[in-house]
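Subject: design request, 261 residues
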């Protein structure tokens, strides 16, 4: 049997997307998802998403996200932006979307080819001597480094991801360098891909909030450069933490295809 799929990328974080409104696949098809994400034996991607029917009257669709290892995971910011672009391509939405992902409800708008995705509020940023830790829909360890371009993200990231206090559950790990006020470079080791990816949207969001929380910028509009391109994060600091957080950037369809399954 042939399965129709779509390939999308958001600043180089790439995804297989399947229109699952007819429930052709289930969440238990984890071996299939891992095979489709495999860069040698499948299509190749950092993750896979199912666009499913909404579970309530407000939503346009439901987002279900799996890492490249085939396991369902927490929120994917770049994935969410790509799924909004896919929903527009399908005609499920025009230029605004309301959908639910594993971390709760999201709103998004498409403006001039950029997807503005609202992320969950963040009330807790844990500060340690060497790093910060926060959850922006997915868990993120954020640490400042020098000479980011030459940094061994894969090996040092893997060690932190597997070490205390994260162990098997893991964390994504972001290495950051300040470029100028309100502009930061980041490279991310992603849990579930178990490698560096070109970009991580929840990671970029975590970096922007962390930089503000540690006074490395007082701007509430932060530019974060990833290896795959530029993302912007806007937010408001309130007495409850950070609210009205938006992750803003491009999301492009790369190709459509069919694969035997
Ligand atoms: N690439 C993502 C994050 C995907 C989830 C992550 N790998 C995890 O398991 O925590 C993004 O753009 O946010």
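Subject: RE: design request

Done. Sequence follows.
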């Amino acid at each position: 049997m042939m399965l129709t799929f779509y390939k999308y990328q958001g600043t180089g974080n790439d995804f297989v997307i399947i229109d699952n409104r007819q429930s052709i696949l289930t969440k238990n098809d984890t071996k299939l998802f891992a095979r489709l994400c495999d860069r040698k034996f499948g299509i190749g991607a950092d993750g896979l998403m199912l666009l499913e029917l909404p579970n309530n009257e407000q939503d346009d669709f439901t987002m279900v996200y799996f890492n490249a290892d085939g396991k369902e995971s927490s929120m994917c910011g770049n994935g969410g932006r790509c799924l909004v672009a896919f929903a527009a391509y399908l005609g499920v939405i025009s230029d605004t979307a309301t959908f639910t992902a594993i971390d709760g409800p999201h709103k998004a708008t498409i403006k001039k080819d950029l997807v503005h995705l609202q992320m969950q509020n963040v009330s807790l940023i844990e500060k340690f001597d060497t790093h910060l830790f926060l959850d922006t829909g997915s868990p993120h360890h954020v640490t400042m480094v020098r000479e980011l371009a030459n940094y061994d993200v894969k090996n040092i990231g893997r060690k932190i991801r597997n070490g205390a206090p994260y162990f098997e559950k893991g964390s994504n790990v972001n290495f950051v360098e300040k470029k100028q006020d309100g502009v930061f470079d980041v490279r991310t080791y992603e849990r579930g891909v178990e490698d560096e990816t070109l970009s991580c949207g929840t990671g970029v969001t975590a970096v922007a909030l962390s930089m503000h929380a540690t006074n490395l910028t007082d701007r509430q509009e932060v530019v974060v450069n990833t290896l795959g391109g530029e993302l912007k994060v806007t937010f408001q600091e309130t007495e409850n933490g950070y609210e009205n957080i938006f992750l803003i950037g491009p999301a492009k369809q790369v190709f459509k295809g069919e694969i035997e399954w």
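Residues 13, 46-47, 67, 73-74, 76-79, 138, 172, 190-193, 200-202 surround LBFN2T5F (CB under 6 Å).
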